[in-house]
Amino acid sequence: MTGHTTTPFQQPLKTAALDWRTDDGDIEAPFSTHYDDVYFSRQNGLAETHYVFLEQNDLPRRFADWSDERAFVIGETGFGTGLNMLCAWACFDSHAPSGARLHLVSTEKHPLTRDALARAWRAWPSLAARADALIAQWPEAVAGVHRLTLDHRVTLDLHFGDAADTLSRLDGRVDAWFLDGFAPAKNPDMWQPALFAALAGASRPSATFATFTCAGMVRRGLAAVGFAWRKVPGFGRKREMLRGEWQAGTPADTSGMPPTETPPNPRAATPWFQPPPPRPSERIAVIGAGIAGTSVAEALARRGSAVTLIDRDGIACGASGNPQAALYVKLAVETNLQSRFYLAALLHAHRWLARLDPARRWWADCGLLQLAGSDSDETRQQRFLHHHALPPSVVQACAADAASRAAGIPVSRAALHYPTAGWVDPVALCRHLAATPGIEVVCEELRALRETESGWQLQLGQRSQAFDQVVFATGHASRDWLDGLPLQPIRGQVSTLASDTPLSQVLCGGGYVMPARDGRLVFGATFAPHEATTDMRDADHRTNLDELAALAPSLVPATIDPTQLGGRASVRAASPDKAPYAGPLPNIDAWRQDYAALAKDARTRFTQPGRHYPGLWVSTAHGSRGMVSAPLCAELIASRIHDEPLPLARELVDHLHPGRRVIADLMRGR
Prior knowledge:
By secondary structure, this protein is an alpha/beta fold.
């Protein structure tokens, strides 16, 4: 038997090992004891950043001249304290037109803790407001991509992990690079050929770079993948530094070395997932006003699109209309793509909700206990924790007595405790999102959809309206419009009960129950695949009561008539593999034709990109976890439409692609 081998997504991230040093002016700065190097100069760190990274990338002029619809993208190796990125943000605010947007992408292998980050930023009061925005959203030390919305014009994607590895998974292109991190002599593991190849693979034509180092290995590595470099005077006592541009296929102009390595095409093995080319995004229709549709609408409006949110029945009248919904995921024992996505979505949802409603008026990060239902469940939870070295602030083991104290009521089993999970009022959330400036809500039925030379013509009731692009987010009803995309309806009924219980955390097991709100418990829900009715059923209330009794017996009254319960039934949509669909809509007949050879040999290589319906997108099949999955899927779709880096690693983007089932079926000979 072979031993268990951990992946980068199962191994724990080590936070930065720091010493704190003070100069004669009492400026305190962090010092890496692991790399034996400083994060920034205590005397002139701001001036150094401005000279090395902002000026040598010509950012003040480029920001002032920026007129593209898409965001200007800066990439960085080594986030550290964030000094470079926050200085770039300040420079952008000072020089860029009011309608411009900035997208920051930075890698970090050993992130600082939130407390250390706050301590480091005491040295820079001139950037305090920006630092506060960063610190407020600072993520836990979990490998992967963490998206932070710093303000309405500035987005930061933190890629936690090895720089070469994370940048090779980046789905997006960069306009200017800050090649920072500790010096090559101190950190040779970063400055490797794989890093230079990843930089070239993620660069837009003529992308620039600047770096403090002139080391020969850096010059040779950059030249080998197509970067032209030149030496310029360094900052302060440093004699020289490098700056340059990516010019793939041309010799580097001072090294005398032509490029010798071609960055690998990340889509060579999966051309069907090649994204469609960008299109105008000024006017976008979003069909469906539940959590999937309203989160997409908000993400698009925040980027400047004029959004028409269309739903015949109004906001949150379908599956998103329950009085409370759990912020809950159930992760696999061993890491897989599905679990990686849902973990990223859960962490993203918490930051997203905290930004939308910092006062917690209609949501609560009260914590969630995933109770083991049996001895085998407890064993599964222990195996999960063994395979996932996640910070205890994300998930931790909780014995039955500790779970009882956390819940405020007796529970009889051990649990996995998610301290920052909780619940949300879906209706209040959807209404808040729909009220975002730039969104028009239209309560009309979509009757027809027709492609035009410039976009799509929609028949809404008795009127017709033109749009550049259209996003379908209509749950199981999406199948009426989406060219054979496999969707399964699932009926679910929740129950409500008057209660003054002291329950303080969400409990999940065979069912779930939320802390009482306005004197009522919400619990459930039934799960009936292939049913699409919304009538209330006493039998479903009885099923929910039985699940509640198994989960928390003290919450069930001694005598209760199911007819006395309130509740609500709705229909959710699920995909065959239980992952959401989020991305461009494939032309399924064309895919089956173009990639038919996969049915005979799954290793067949193709050059034909996947054919998609131009300007049609889908966010659906969120099942019972849409409150967690929909917001991150919305960011994915809005980022793709606006030609930005995506908030997930490339393989997770592909995992969510609406065409994935077509390819899987072909490879299985179906």
